[in-house]
Amino acid sequence: MKGKLNATSAGTLKKVLDRIGHYKWLVLVSLVLAAGTVLLTLYVPILVGRAIDGIVDAGRVDFNMIYPILARIGLCVALTGLGQWVMNAVNNRVTYDVVRDLREEALKHIEDLPLSYIDSHPHGETVSRVIADADQFADGLLMGFTQLFTGVLTILVTLGFMFLKNWLIALVVVGVTPLSLFVARFIATRTYAMFRQQSETRGEQTAFIDEMIGNLKVVKAYGREAAETGRFDEINARLKTCSLRATFFSSITNPATRFVNAVVYALVALVGALSALAGHISVGGLTAFLSYANQYTKPFNEISGVVTELQNAIACAARLFELIETPAQTPDAPGALTDVRGGVEWEDVCFSYVKDRPLIEHFNLSVAPGQRVAIVGPTGCGKTTLINLLMRFYDPDRGVIRVDGRDMLSLSRKSLRSAYGMVLQETWLKPGTIRENIAMGRPDAAEEEIVAAARAAHAHSFIMRLPEGYDTVIGEDGGMLSQGQKQLLCITRVMLLLPPMLILDEATSSIDTRTELRIQSAFARMMRGRTSFIVAHRLSTIREADVILVMRDGHIVEQGNHESLLARKGFYYELYTSQFEGVGSRG
Q1: CA–centroid distance for 201 within its chain
Q2: 443, 409: one domain
Q3: How far is CA 405 from CA 332, 346, 390, 400, in A?
Q4: What is the C-alpha to C-alpha distance for residues 29 and 7, in angstroms, rounded to an integer?
Q5: Looking at residue 544, which CATH number applies to its domain?
Q6: What percent of the chain has pLDDT over 90?
């Protein structure tokens, strides 16, 4: 397991370095500035040591030597401060550019993912990867840039200075260094799994909160507040436990390395004092050496903290890369659907969401251009699945679907979907004005066309009652609009688009009966000459369909128009009479 984690961590780190490589010139500038600030920082102790050596005895100070040294110390400190400021600005730029690129790559890939992935993963968990995990990764990466480069360079250059100054004391420092490295590595290799678990639990919590907020009315309606709070408390407790474990074990690193570094400093002080007494090194030189010992050990403390943060960052990056590397939907074919007539043919189509649970089997259907096809049947029989296949939200497991005689798989998804206008039972509106939502499919539509479409959909009157009319800004998913008003806006959107083919999946389910009758007449006008697929539970709305497909368990069990199906007194007759039972006796 440990080897697997190390391999995962190394693979993720390589991917991160590949992304950083896009900004190699900025990284080079950061390295040069890091080297410059390190050299200046390490030059200051030499100057301080020389100044101390300028104090010859009590009352005997060589100020002529000390003043220029003090001026050089001031200049070095100023240049170091300026260099660190510029270096931090460059590091920030690289870090947030890399994270921006990853987020853009993740979002673009989400748009390319098959809907089966979106349907099978909690939305909040996916959001957590793109937002929370990316933020955690940015924090760790920024710390890596800010402290790791500088720390490593400080260690290497300090060792060089110490060997030049006194090789014997430098050997003492080098001899104890592996102990500090061993302690840091021992702890860091065991924290990756903990940070990975923390990140996954955080994603589970985000998904739960997203689900709760989106369905709060249902929770309240069924009195599930206490039960859902209990679920949240359980997830929250697990997050607390794994976060505490990860933080506790990672926090051991810094004190452990500090202890080792204190031992190094004490040994340098002891050996250096003996060398000074023996006349092998001056008091100023010993002061510089002790400063170097401190400078040398300090990066180990910082790097141990960086390693901890990097473990967290790599764990978060691994989850982000998992999303980015999830296989995308099959690539688009180059073919385009043009001059659409609207003929649709299904030939021996089989499909299932779960491979061992068949849903649609050996489905055959031929729809002539301009026909109105109604699809009815009990819940779960496959009505909405047919729509998903028509729109290529899913591809059939077997068989062929043709549009105007062309295999759907040979057409680009964009050209295919642009031929359809779709109104679903579930509405979707984006934050923006009423006008922007209506013109989503035709952003260049004229004002008169938008108003005409709204009138046709019987939405104009309620829009004009809004505070700013068509310029009224609505929030996410329609804000405070009623479900019926939101559905009217979605219908208006299709009325404006007037595509060659229509898909109406319970398009009027949330609209009052009086308005529905008016819209049905508008739909009837719009459907003339257009191939239309109508999914409806209220069978009174599909009497005028040219063909009614009666589905059960993924199969068409009956097919015909309203009158012929009633005359057969089969399954459609049972569905229809069950909805209108008692109407005749009351009439």
Answers
A1: 16
A2: no
A3: 18, 10, 14, 11
A4: 31
A5: 3.40.50.300
A6: 1
The span from the CA of 166 to the CA of 273, in Å, is: 13
Q: Which domain holds residue 469?
A: 420-498
Per-residue pLDDT, averaged over 73-95, amounts to 88
The predicted structure's pLDDT at residue 586: 37
Mean pLDDT score, 415-443: 84
User: Cα torsion at 17, 18, 23, 27 (round to 10°)?
Assistant: 30
For a pLDDT cut of 70, what percent of the chain falls above it? 86
Same domain, 483 and 344: no
The pLDDT of residue 400 is 92
**163's tokens:** 């060997």
Does residue 174 have a pLDDT over 70?
yes
Q: Could you tell me which residues are beta bridge partners of residue 535?
A: 375, 505
- Do 348 and 315 reside in the same domain of the chain? no
pLDDT of residue 82: 92
- Cβ partners under 8 Å of residue 451, min gap 6: 460, 470
Question: Which value, in Å, is the radius of gyration of the alpha carbons in the chain?
Answer: 36
The two tokens of residue 435 are: 């006008």
According to DSSP, the residues that pair with 92 across neighbouring strands are none
Structural contact between residues 292 and 165, judged by C-beta atoms closer than 8 angstroms = yes
What is the rounded average pLDDT for all residues in the chain? Answer: 79
Give the span between the Cα atoms of 377 and 382, in whole angstroms: 8
Question: Which residue, 286, 396, 412, is CA-closest to 349?
Answer: 396
pLDDT value for 2: 42
Task: State both tokens at 491.
Answer: 């219908």
